[in-house]
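DATA SHEET
Item: assembly model
Revision: 1
Owner: S.N.
Input lines:
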Amino acid sequence: MTPQSQLTVVAPVEATRARGLRELLATLNTTPGNANPDNAVLPFGNVPTIHFARFSILTDATLGDLQAYDLPTPRHPVYLAFVVDCDGPAHRTLADLATRAGSGLRAIFSHCVGFGTETDLLAWMRDHDRPVAASYVNRVGRTVEQVREESALQRALSDRVNRAALGSPAEAQQRRRDLVNFAQGEIEAGRLRLTPPGPTPIGWWLAKLFNAVFGVLVGLLALPLLVLLSPLLIPALRRREKHDPEICPRPDRDALMQLQGLEDYDVTNQYTALGTLKPGRFRLWLAKVVLALIQFASRHVFTRGYLARVQTIHFARWVLLDGETRVLFTSNYDGGHQAYMDDFINKVAWGLNVIFSNGLGWPKTDWLLFRGARREDRFKFFQRRHQLETQVWYKAYPGLTLANLARNSLIRRGLQKARMTDEKALAWLQLL
Amino acid sequence: MSGREGFDARVDLGDIQGLVRFGFKHQTEAAFLLLQVKDVRAARAWLSSADVTSAITCKQTPRTVLQIALTSAGLRALDVPVDIIDGFSEEFIEGMAGDDNRARRLGDVGANDRKKWDWGNAERTPHVALFLYALPGELEEFRRAIEQQIEPGFALLSPPFVTSAVDENEPFGFRDGISQPTLDWGRKRAAHDETRLHYDNLSCLGEYLLGYPNEYGRYTPRPLLSLSRDPENRLPRAEECPDYADLGRNGSYLVFRQLHQDIALFWKTVDRYAGGKPADRDMLAAAMVGRTRTGEPLVPLLTPPDSVAPSAAAEDLNTFNFDSDPRGTRCPLGAHIRRANPRNADFPAGTNSIVSKLIRTLGFDSQARQDDLVASTRFHRLLRRGREYGPAVSIEQALAPGATSTPTGLHFICLNASILRQFEFVQGAWLMSTKFNGMRDESDPLLGNRVRDFAGNPTDRFLMAQPDDPTCVLAGLPQFITVRGGAYFFLPGIRALRYLATC
C-alpha cells in the first residue's frame, strides 16, 4: 500500500507583484480556477502522483476582527500557498515537480520574497513546506493510478455486462466469469491495467505503530490530569463561550461572486479558508490539542472512506501560520458548496465546533460541541467570509466522486475474487 | 372569522398573501402577468392600493384572486432604497439569471441556457409578476380590468401567460401536486434546534415565510429596518428583535420557471424503450417518475387509502418514505420523486440506544453510511404552486406518427424562505446532479439537460436496480424539458407590499 502525503509550500508574496502573480496563475487554467492538466507553466497531469493541487493567494480581509478584543489589527504579509496531496513521500513528488516543471515553478515563485534567479528551487520549496497540524485522507493507500485504472475497468465492465434477466441464480456466476475472462483479455491486450498495490513502506508502518502506542499512552496519562483539572478548565471554557464575540456579518457580495465564479465546474470543489485564533493561551492550547486529536484519528481511525458521517471529503488539512496565530484550512469535497456546508451542519456540527470554535468570531458554542455551526445562518456567513479564492485548482480524476471511487474499488475486488456464492456474484453484477 | 383553529395567534393571516396557504384550486382559471415599471409614481400608486387576497378564509371562495410579487430589479425600478434591497438574500438580489455559477448549479446550460430564454434574462427581466386566479368563466373580464388598472404604471413584458384549466395531471399525464409539505401553522414544532430521527411531512412556517423560526429554530436573514424608518408602525415588528421593523415577515421568495415539456418526445422515447408494449411503457414511465400515472408511489403506502387510487385524496398518496427500498428495486434511486423529495431523516435508520447513535454519529456503521449519502430532507422542502399551460396532449396523440412538440409545459412556481438552501439545493444537488445518492452518469429522468459533465461523461442514463437481476439501464435519454424563462420574486406580506410602494 502506498500512503499519501501533503505538501504545503507557503511563502510571502512581494507586495508589488501580487497582481502579476494573479495574471500568471490565470494562464494555468482552462476555466476560471480550474487548471488545464497540460498547461505550459505547470503541467500537473505530467506528475502521476498528484491527486489534488492548488495555488491560493492568502489575503485576509478579516484581520481587523481582533479589534473586538481591543487588539490592534496585525500586519501579516500576503502569502502564496502551493498545496498538494500526493502518493508516496512528499519529497519525491516535490523533486518530480522540480524536474518536470522547474521553469514554471520558478516563474511562479519568483513573485515571492527572497526567490531569485540563483535560488535552488527544490531546497527553497522544502524550506517553505509547512508542517500540517492535522490532515485527512479519505482512503489511505488509494493511489491516483488505482483510481484511474479502476475507473477504466468500471466503464469497460459496465458497457460489457449482459443486463438481461438471469435464467437461474447460478447464471450470475457464469456472467461474472465471462466478465473476468473479458477483463483478462483486455489486460493482456494492454487496454486495461490493474497494477497490484505497491509494498507498504516499513518505515511508514513502524512510525504509525509507534504513533498509535505513543498516542494511547499520552492519552492515558493525560486523562487523569484533565479530570483533575476539569474544575478549572470547564469554567474557563464556559466563561469564554459566554463572552467570546461572535463575528458573522454577511460576506461582501463581490467577494462572494468571485468565489462562486470558481465553483461547480466539476463534481468536486475546493475550499480554502484562513482565520485567526482567538487570543490567549487557553484557545491556542485547546486548538492544538484538538488538532492533535484530529490528526491521531485520521491517521488511525478515519482512514477508510469516511470522516465520522461525512463521506464527501477527499483530502483536508489544517496548517498553523504566523507564530501559531492563524490557521489555514483547505479541503477538496464532492458536490456543491451549499451541500458541503449542509453536510457539515447536519452531520458533524459537533466536530466543526470542537476545532473551529477556537477561531475568532465563530458562532457561539455550548460545551464546545453544541450550537455553533448549528446556528445555520451565522455559520454560513462565517465560513464564506473566511473563504479565500483558489486561483488554480487541479484534480487528477475529474468526473469522479468518492462514492464512485469506493464502488469502483468494490468492482475491482469482486473481479479478483477467486470464487463467489450465487448471491455475492449477483450483488457484484449489480454494482455495474 | 372562521378557519382560525390550528393557527397560532401570532400568525397574522390577513397580512399573508393567499398563495402561501392555498393553491386556489377552485379558481380553475389563471393568468400570470409579467410587468416592467414604466412610470414609478403610477406603479407605486397602484401597488399601494391593489386589492390583494390574503390567507384569511371566507365563507365563500373569492371569485377572483390577485397576488403580487416583485423581483430585485423591480425593487430597484421602483426606487426602493438600496440598503433595504441589500437586506434580501444574495440569490434574490442577483436573480435567477444572475451569473454563470448559478446557471451551472441549476442546470441552465445547453438548451436551457438563459441566453436562449424567452424572458427572465438581461433586458427581459420582469419587475413585477401578477398572479390572477378566477372561478370558471370569470378570468377574462378580471384580467382586462387589471390590465386597465396597471396601464399607467406598467408595461407588459410579454403576452399574459394563460394557464390551462386546473386538472390534476401535469402535461406528461401524471397526477401532480401530491407531495406538499404540511405547514406548521399552529407553530407546534419546537422553535429550537433538535435532531429529528424520522421523516415527517410537517414543516416549520419559517421554511416558507420570513420572520418565523425555520427548521434550525433560526430566523432566516431578511431586511430588518430601524424603527425610525417606520414611524407610523406600518410594518410588523421582528419577532426575535422587536426593536426592528420586519419587512420580510409574512413574505416568501417565489421561484418562477417556465418549463417547456415535449410530450411527443417523452412518450415516443418511452415507447421505444418499451418496444411498443403498452404495459412496459407504463411501467418504464412510472419508474422514471416514481409514481404511476394515477399517483400511486412505487413503494407501499404506510397507511393504505380506503378508496381506490383514481379518487384517492392527495394526502393519502403522500404517506410513504423510501426506508423499505434502500437499493431502489421498487422505486429507482434516480426516479424523479425520489430525487425531488428523498423523504429521509436527519440520521440514518437504526435503534435509539445511545451506543447505536454514537456509532452512527462517528460513521462506524457501514450500513448506516450507505444510507447517509443524501442530505436530510426537511431542510430542503418546497411549497409548489405551479400551473400547466398549453394544449393537453393525450398519450395516444403523443404517440401518433408525425406528432411533434406542442407549446405545452409547466409554469413551475414554488415558495421558500431560502432560495439557496431550498429551491437551488433541490434543483442543483438533487435533480440535476449526476452524482445524487452515489450515482454516476445519470440526471433526473424528466428534467435532466443531458449536457456532458466537466470530464466529458454522459449524463443521459437512468438506472433501475432489480431485486434478483443485473441493473437495467436506459441510455441515451433525450432532453424532455427545456427552461424557457424564469426569475426569483419576493412575495411580500401585504403590509410590506404597501410599505415598499411608498418608502
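QC remark: The first strand of chain B starts at residue 29 and ends at 37.
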